[in-house]
Amino acid sequence: MREPLSKMIKTIPPSGIRKFFDIVSEMEDAISLGVGEPDFDTPWHIREEGIYSLERGRTFYTSNAGLKELKEEICRYLKRSQGISYPAEDILVTVGGSEAIDIALRAMLDPGDEVLIPQPSYVSYEPCTLLANGKPVIIQLKEENDFRLTKQEVLDAVTEKTKILVLPFPNNPTGAIMEKKDLEEIAEVVIEKDLFVISDEIYSELTYSGKHVSIASLPGMQERTVLINGFSKAYAMTGWRLGYAAAPRAIIEQMIKIHQFAIMCAPTTSQYAALEALRKGDDDVKRMKESYDKRRRFLLNELKRIGFDCFTPYGAFYAFPSIKKFNMTSDEFAERLLKEQKVAVVPGTAFGACGEGFLRISYAYSIDDLRVALGRIEEFIKSL
Amino acid sequence: MREKILDMLYGNSKISADDMAVMLGCSKQEIEDEIAAMEKEGIICGYTTMINWDKTESERVSAFIEVKVAPQRGLGFDKIAERIYKFDEVESVSLMSGGFDLGVTIEGRTIKEVAIFVHEKLAPLESVISTSTHFVLKKYKEHGVTLVSGPKKAERMMITP
């Protein structure tokens, strides 16, 4: 029989998280700090609106780009939170932010085009670039820069073939953010080198020092940016699979083309629930954010007390402590911690080779859960 | 700061000043001073424990009583409210808008005990015009906490990107 698989797909390694997931799922009483989603339930009034839409029989496709009211509400949200004006026609409602990442790359890349991907970062940018026939060029973010992207790092990586810069902030797994002054420097290079930006802002609402700034809000950048956001993290709606992209019309139109052939439209129930989230969910976001912020301080304080070096994260819900002083690789550390104390954390290498020497610890857990897990981690450190 | 401290205590009255200081990003001394001040000012009136009595052996009934009263000149409802809230059986007393004046909640060991209290103590009070007693059959949620469901099972996968 002939080879059923494409050469391309065989070159793409499975997600580094997968391997670890398999080990953890075999352990019965392990406790985990390895989850990348909120621990809150979706606020009831949002769930209730989803249920009501089903009761009313709203069980049909919506238009490809999404419900008009939802797109308009997204525009209002982007205006009030980021000060950026988009017409509803520049919005595409997607199946999570992850679909938006994939189809943005597919809509924009020709074979051989280079995509700058800062790492450590979310696991999908590199494989999606490869699947879109692009060439990933990794920028290794540095702890001494608080894992922010610097202008010089972009300049060092850019070539004539560079077309897209992926901007993953607030960052999973490091918790790093980019402030306005940092973004202004990046925007300069982007404009000078005639690049486009895919700005993955899925954690935008979970910023604990001041307000999140989108690079699309800077002068001359809206026309060069595909802004990606969604409902998963801010409203604790991961399972609803709903995100969106806001981008210049020419790009959005082609993204809609891919979306309509591959997906048709985002889930209708989720779209009605999201409408409620945007209209009446601000207080929920605030409540959950305040709770994460308390846990963030608690976790950081405990990690330092136990003896970890950890830079202060100001976004998302992760801490990214260094384990270099323990003379183990991230994989070794995570595996031993799991086997000896039954605590699961994710090795930094799951998010790029430069995550070596770090762990991702999620604080999307109650204080009580964190306390128990940290107690075990402390035992582990003492035993070394 | 006070509101943040109160929010945390409202959710968990056992939380330590150390933990609060870490979580709110301030010093332990600051927290202790604020709490002491609020206790003194009567903002914090006590620290209590939420108990689901239905799960214990202890027999208890609670009732909500609508009370209509004739307010007294110069004293309004305060005097009669005081006469009611001084009874030990009375859990809470509130002045209400709408169809009746005072909302009174009573805790007793038996229905009979509550009934005796109402017709021997409450109803005969001079300014009380009428009472209407509603017994609680089942408590679903109290103090923002759902009582009827068991501990929540972790639904999330152990490791996700």
Short description:
In chain A, 42% of the residues lie in helices and 13% in strands.
Annotated CATH homologous superfamily of the largest domain in chain A: Type I PLP-dependent aspartate aminotransferase-like (Major domain)
End-to-end gap of chain B: 35 Å
CATH topology of the largest domain in chain B: Alpha-Beta Plaits
In the CATH hierarchy, what is the superfamily of the largest domain in chain B?
Lrp/AsnC effector binding domain/regulation of amino acid metabolism (RAM) domain
Name the helix and strand elements of chain A from N-terminus to C-terminus, one letter apiece.
Answer: HHEHHEHEHEHEHEEEHHHEHEEEH
What value does the Rg of chain A take, in angstroms? 21 Å
Portion of residues within helices of chain A: 40-55%
Strand order of the largest sheet of chain B: 2-3-1-4
- How many strands of chain B? 6
Structural class assignment of chain B: alpha+beta
DSSP strand tally of chain A:
12
Query: How many domain units of chain A?
Result: 2
Helix residue percentage of chain B:
25-40%
Strand portion of chain B: 15-25%
Largest interface: A-B, 26 and 12 residues
Largest sheet of chain B: 4 strands, antiparallel
Account of the 3D structure:
The complex is a heterodimer of chains A (384) and B (161). Chain A is of the alpha/beta class and 384 residues long. Chain A folds into two domains: 7-42 and 283-383, Aspartate Aminotransferase, domain 1 (Alpha-Beta Complex), CATH 3.90.1150.10; 44-280, 3-Layer(aba) Sandwich (Aspartate Aminotransferase, domain 2), CATH 3.40.640. Chain A contains 13 helices and twelve strands. In chain A, α3 (44-55) crosses α10, α5 (96-108) crosses α6 and α11 (282-306) packs parallel to α13 (367-383). Chain B is an alpha+beta fold and 161 residues long. Chain B folds into two domains: 2-40; 53-139, Alpha-Beta Plaits (2-Layer Sandwich), CATH 3.30.70.920. Chain B has five helices and six strands, in the order αααβαββαβββ. In chain B, strands 2-3-1-4 form a four-stranded antiparallel sheet. Chain B has a two-stranded antiparallel sheet with strand order 5-6. In chain B, α2 (17-24) crosses α3. The chains are: A alpha/beta (384), B alpha+beta (161). Chain A binds chain B through residues 15, 17, 20-21, 24-25, 30, 32, 34-37, 39, 122-124, 172, 294-295, 297-298, 301, 344, 346, 350, 367, and chain B through 8, 19, 22-25, 156-161.
